[in-house]
Design a protein that fits this description.
Number of helices: 9
InterPro entries: GntR_C, TF_FadR/GntR_C, Tscrpt_reg_HTH_GntR, WH-like_DNA-bd_sf, WH_DNA-bd_sf
CATH architecture of the largest domain: Up-down Bundle
Oligomer: single chain
Domain HTH gntR-type: 14-81
Number of strands: 2
CATH topology of the largest domain: Four Helix Bundle (Hemerythrin (Met), subunit A)
CATH superfamily of the largest domain: GntR ligand-binding domain-like
GO molecular function, one term: DNA binding
Keywords: DNA-binding, Transcription, Transcription regulation
Strand content: under 5%
CATH class of the largest domain: Mainly Alpha
Biased composition (Polar residues): 239-250
């Protein structure tokens, strides 16, 4: 009789936990948990068809990542949609990406930059009225490609983290017609990279991603309207209960 492989159950559990983490994080990123709302663990576990033990592990991880807070009396609470905090994240991103683009300028090959130019030119062909989700995917892909060209995995991880925390605000921003400016600025950044103009690049990047507090406040005002009108327009969750494997229950 063959000996059971002890690794497989653990691997299945790990995969299920990663799937659960991805589902709940997506909900937090899109503000499906309304700002300041208490997370009902019992209801959320039922909705995702999981037990509370793995769910609580995920909620703790999201708290560490800045998507939730925790109160002794109320449990886990959804993050606020706060203009000053978002502005701080934009400032951090501007400094981070200035370092990324300098490193990419020094380390990216000519072939990689040619590929990046081709990507930007293809992106410009995507219609202006395309869904904001798709437009934001293209924008994030451009910036993450630059981070990978820096040959520094810490840059990549840091950028992925800050992108997730401002994703919703940037999605709203893209809906408001930001995309036309974005594409032209991407091309100017690529041209400076091709010239290896390391002195000009940080300024180009900062101008590209910087936002004033009043601009962010305007975007957040639209964001609140989107969050609170969403429930009236469609079902609240794009993640049905049977999306997470029942085998994840413990």
């Amino acid at each position: 009789m063959p000996t059971p492989n002890p690794i497989r159950p653990a691997a299945r559990t790990q995969a299920a936990q990663a799937e659960l983490y991805g589902a709940v994080k997506a909900m937090a990123v899109r503000f499906e948990f309304k700002p300041g709302e208490r997370i009902n663990e019992v209801e959320l576990a039922r909705r995702l068809n999981v037990s509370r033990t793995p769910l609580r592990e995920v909620l703790n991880q999201l708290m560490v990542e800045g998507f939730l807070t925790r109160s002794v009396n109320r449990g886990f609470i959804a993050r606020l949609l706060d203009a000053k905090q978002i502005h701080s994240l934009y400032e951090y991103r501007a400094v981070l990406e200035a370092g990324i683009v300098r490193a990419a300028c020094e380390r990216a090959s000519d072939e990689e930059l040619a590929g990046l130019r081709a990507f930007v030119e293809r992106s410009r062909d995507v219609p202006e009225d395309c869904e904001a989700t798709r437009l934001l995917e293209l924008d994030e892909a451009f910036h993450l490609t630059l981070a990978r060209y820096s040959r520094n995995e810490e840059f990549v991880r840091a950028l992925e983290s800050v992108n997730a925390r401002i994703h919703f605000v940037r999605w709203i921003d893209m809906q408001q017609g930001r995309r036309g400016h974005t594409q032209g600025e991407h091309l100017r950044i690529v041209e400076a990279l091709e010239r290896r103009d390391i002195e000009a690049l940080p300024g180009l990047m900062s101008a590209h991603i910087g936002r004033r507090l009043d601009q962010i406040t305007d975007v957040i005002r639209t964001g609140f309207s989107t969050i609170y009108m969403r429930d009236q327009a469609e079902p609240a969750s794009p993640t049905p209960a049977n999306t997470i494997s029942a085998g994840e229950k413990q």
